[in-house]
Amino acid sequence: MLQVIDEAIFDLINITFHNDVFNFIIPLFSQIWLIWVGVFLCVVAYAVHCWRSSLEPIGRILMLILLMGLSVGVTDFTSSALKHAIDRDRPCENLLGANYYDIETQKWAEVTQELAEDQRLGGSMPSSASAACMAVAVVLSLLFAKANPWVFLLPFSVGISQIYVGRNYPFDILVGWLLGLVSVIAVWWVCHLIIIRFSSHRKLG
Fold this sequence. Notes:
71% of the residues lie in helices and 4% in strands.
């Protein structure tokens, strides 16, 4: 049942909405360099916010980078382990008739049996790109209240793009978003405990 729903939503985004305008715009959100440009602009916006609000921008930026780095690292490690454990084929590897955008050649193709056999991109679930972008968005929303909810446009755009270019199913994206959220909560909780423990030791000393 879930597979049927997953493929139905995928067909809607990947095939029904397929057109020349979207073919030019949407794949941009699957480009790694463009994703990190978006992250950089978010960090700059946060730095400007701290500077204008007199919130010790250097310390806050270091905190942001630390939390973001740890969260993305945990997310990437966990998503790689889950990909290997679940071992789900990507749409471009088994869904004949789907549209697939090759990022390296920047060309569109319809998935055929021959193309499917050539694709070896690793597990589909969860989507690593969606998970990492969600982790970044959650960290920014925790530290930069004014970024909420606009900052979540980043993981949403990347997730839709991954479906549109034929690299992931919708449920892969949802699991990736959830993984990114849980990773940030875990990192935030551990860092909070460390800070409390460190503070208590300093008081005792």
